[in-house]
Write a structure and sequence with these properties.
Helix content is 38%, strand content 20%. By secondary structure, the chain is an alpha/beta fold. It has a 6-stranded parallel sheet, with helices on both faces. It has a 4-stranded antiparallel sheet with strand order 8-7-9-10. It is globular, with a radius of gyration of 19 Å. The chain binds adenosine monophosphate. The site of adenosine monophosphate has 17 residues, from helix 2 and strand 5.
Length: 282
């Protein structure tokens, strides 16, 4: 096992990257910590495709709205480090808020249109925080590739748009959603669920399964599928933020189901907001 290096300052992270970049492909996995198998799958893919792997752990305050869960967001640095050590990660970048947003900080990265739909409707400042922090992290770590989960499909789309529009040299690589055995998409926020809520949370993955079945049986109307999904969710006491079927290439509405149709879900189970998504034809 290699020795894992923990770096807390931008200066040291930049120096490490400068020292290693010319001889090695650096793979990067940005996270907010409280790691689960979903994060670890990204690390494994990064390892397979890179010479050196950097994982950042930073609960980015600017992507949380005023009434969201920033202060209660789960954290367990020691456990995270031991999981990453077991995967032979080279560097964990663990800056604090002052390091990333020093007093007098003024600059933001904003992507239009695709950030005001889906999660952007109920979380209007969220993606501005995401695009800004990912830009900063890419500039600091200077990786060849960034590995991110399709669990956050809209985030992946927004960041792909951002690296294209702003001519970043870094590639964004989308990786599949990792699920619990019963289908629930892994998320650090699943920790908030009590026993009953954990059972009710299955309405998200069950909605996906049921939508795929409807399509296999010939259903072509997005609205009919959406209605059926809404029923499944409300029967399990889920409060719907959104249920939408969009073209996954453009995040635009489609009149009929085709191979690009993707179901997007955001649902409150109790106080916990969960998201999930799936291409409906695979
Ligand atoms: P987070 O710590 O929630 O900001 O997530 C960090 C990265 O892990 C993002 O790229 C997420 O899309 C990804 N991720 C989170 N949950 C999963 C999952 N269940 N499967 C795959 N990737 C995930």
């Amino acid at each position: 096992m290699k020795k894992l290096k923990i770096i807390r300052t931008i200066k040291e992270m930049v120096a490490w990257s400068n020292q290693n970049k010319s001889q090695n492909k650096i793979g990067f996995v940005p996270t907010m910590g409280y790691l689960h198998e979903g994060h670890l799958s990204l690390v494994r893919t990064a390892k397979e495709n890179s010479d050196l792997v950097v994982v950042s752990i930073f609960v980015n305050p600017t992507q949380f709205g005023a009434n969201e869960d920033l202060s209660t967001y789960p954290r367990d640095f020691e456990r995270d480090i031991s999981l990453l050590e077991n995967l032979d990660v080279d560097v964990v970048f663990f800056p604090n808020n002052q390091e990333m947003y020093p007093t007098g900080y003024k600059t933001w990265v904003v992507t239009d249109e695709i950030t005001s739909i889906l999660c952007g409707k109920s979380r209007p400042t969220h993606f501005k925080g995401v695009t800004t922090i990912v830009s900063k992290l890419i500039n600091i770590v200077n990786p060849e590739s960034v590995f991110m989960g399709t669990k956050d499909f809209q985030q992946l789309t927004v960041l792909n748009q951002m690296v294209q529009d702003l001519n970043f040299r870094t590639k964004i690589i989308g990786c599949p959603i990792v699920r619990e055995n019963d289908g629930l998409a892994m998320s650090s926020r699943n920790k908030y669920l009590n026993e009953i809520e954990r059972k009710n949370a299955l309405c998200l993955s069950e909605s996906i399964k049921s939508s795929k079945k409807m399509i296999k049986n010939g259903e072509k109307s997005p609205n009919k599928i959406i209605e059926s999904v809404k029923k499944i969710i409300t029967e399990k006491s889920g409060k719907i933020d959104y249920v939408e079927i969009l073209d996954e290439r453009t995040l635009k509405f489609t009149n009929s189901i085709d191979e690009h149709s993707r179901l997007f879900l955001a649902v409150y189970i109790g106080k916990t907001r969960l998201i999930d998504n799936a291409n409906l034809n695979v």
